[in-house]
DNA sequence: CGCTTAATTGACTCGTCTCAACAAAAGTGG
DNA sequence: CCACTTTTGTTGAGACGAGTCAATTAAGCG
């Protein structure tokens, strides 16, 4: 298997689904390969049809295109279908600070529910497609479908937990631990999506990684070099191969959600 | 007005309610002074009664007592009624990392919904009382009461937004900005609860503040001294008086949720 | 009123940032 | 398709903010 086949961007495609169907077409939730990760968890096919009715699949976004901008009114939350999306805020001086990287099956825009306005901007890191879930409809439907309500609450709770983990990471760990945690976390999420957690392609730039982890680009670059020298991973630009997942997770401490740290 | 009357711990009491009623008694949501901040937002009195039926008010916790521990199974989420609560994780080496300070009207335990297990421990920072909201009941009721569902989703969304703001703070701001943001944020929340945002008592130790902000205790201490020297605030141990809220918020940059930064 | 814990202050160290130069990709247009 | 520009990533040298260690003072608390 070439490392390329783990590229996040080709996730859905490399599963053998046609691009039109998987990434931009009208695949129903029922037929979506992500339905055990996304909103549909636990729904029967009748409920899935009802869910489908409030979902719109739009043409794929190209790298750099906006999904929405900070300040836009909330009309929908979005489920990533293929590719990957970053969310970020812009400080008053114009530089952006990344708040999240979102992989297929993950929901974007949940932070907007409180105020009715997206607090962050969201852009595609690569060619990506999303399902647009009308928010009004989602609120309505989750009053009617217990399983949908539960899953929505679960996904929001998971986001809270993940963000808190990031706070612990940013507040408590040195640079090396932060990068180790991010890589372990991405590896785990890539794994959950059916791909090898040992080799994948990072869709985000070093800049984005630094911004997300609160580090200078140069530091991120040096860290990759160091981790490679220590035999923890191989890295060649965006292509990453994890050689010692356990040691990597130990470096990350408690800060990889989901999995408990080894030892 | 003495600064003491702004003590977080005496919030409810100083509103003139009897301790038994306000802090440990059986005040219904209807009669609770926090009902415009907490779960009851937007509910009519019939629905409030239904909500009351799944809520238990327990004896107040004393300083340091646990509300729950990381790893406990989720049975309820808690609304702070009076006092203040901190949530934190323990690293493998035993030192704790604070993930949140919670004031009256705020919900605790939302991070447990995803897994059914509290991911953090929660302890009282001072004598505090809470409302225990049975989680099963809450799920049930929010299927029946639209307003309750909306408020629950709003509160979870707000937490997501707040945690993301903390990530930006911890990843992007120097020590001074972090403390300025925390103080501005607490001031705003104290203000929302009907007290002067200019003078209040911090219920958490310097250690807790440092842990929450990712700083050493010594740094926190020095920062307080410096901010006082610069005329931004007066501080005497836990007692804080904000002298220049605008400059303080400007130091904090975009990292005070709710309020936009001045200038 | 002593004892323990919390907060403050100082001196020194170290990790990460900044600035700067360079290399390698990736677009862009003829 | 190649030469060009622009963007992105890597590496080095020096500066500085915040951590650590240690000592002192001030509060809580029994």
* Uncertain runs of chain A: 1-24, 258-263
Distance between the termini of chain A: 30 Å
Mean pLDDT of chain A: 88
Q: Give a short account of the largest sheet of chain A.
A: 4 strands, antiparallel
Radius of gyration of chain A: 18 Å
Can you identify the CATH superfamily of the largest domain in chain A?
Answer: Jelly Rolls
Helix content of chain A: 25-40%
CATH architecture of the largest domain in chain A: Sandwich
Class based on secondary structure composition and strand pairing of chain A? alpha+beta
Number of separate domains of chain A: 2
Query: Using CB atoms under 8 Å apart, which protein chain pair has the greatest interface?
Result: A-B, 45 and 45 residues
Count of β-strands of chain A: 11
> Can you list the strand order of the major beta sheet of chain A?
1-8-3-6
The number of helical elements of chain A comes to: 8
Order of helices and strands of chain A: HHEEEEEEEEHHHEHHEEH
Q: Which oligomeric state applies?
A: homodimer
Summary of the model, kept short:
2 copies of one chain form a homodimer. The first copy, chain A, is α+β, with helices and mostly antiparallel strands and 263 residues long.
Describe this structure in words.
Two copies of one chain form a homodimer. In chain A, strand 10 and strand 11 form a beta hairpin. Chain A is 37% helix and 19% strand. Chain A has a four-stranded antiparallel sheet with strand order 1-8-3-6. A four-stranded antiparallel sheet of chain A has the order 2-7-4-5. Chain A has a three-stranded antiparallel sheet with strand order 9-11-10. The first copy, chain A, has eight helices and eleven strands. The first copy, chain A, has 263 residues and is α+β, with helices and mostly antiparallel strands. In chain A, helix 3 crosses helix 4 and helix 6 (206-213) crosses helix 7 (217-229). The interface between A and B is large, with 45 and 45 residues. Chain A binds a DNA duplex (30 and 30 nucleotides) through helix 7.
